[in-house]
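Input chain follows. Return structure tokens only.
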Amino acid sequence: MNIKILGALSALALLTACAEKKAETAASTGTGNAVAAPSIVPGSEEDLVKNVGDRVFYSFDKSTLSSDDKGTLDRQAAWLGKYSSVNVQIAGNCDERGTEEYNIALGQRRANAARDYLVAKGTAASRITTISFGKDRPQPDALGHDEASWAKNRNAITSVK
């Protein structure tokens, strides 16, 4: 008797899984093969990340902006000008080397450098907040203990608030 009940529950679970899969593909173009990708909402976090760029990178022990970084921040300033109701936060980050206190201060200088550049380009300072995470928030794809990982973690990341 238990085997019959177990078999019936297994069959029910399988049918439910198949029904959910079919419902996902049915919403596509009618071919049943692909799900339509959602469009990016203008002025959203995803819009900033995909179409503008949300981060700038720094050299070891530095908080000065390179010309590439200024290009990214120029695009951010133009985007912020277009979406004047959007407020952002800039988070300064460091690699794992150095003391906690030193990296918090360096991360703050990095966030401030990005903020100051955006303000100089016409973004109201009241729309931008800054925070430093020091070395406490390494990038998920940069958890190694090598120069490539460290370089990815020396950044300032702009996010929509």
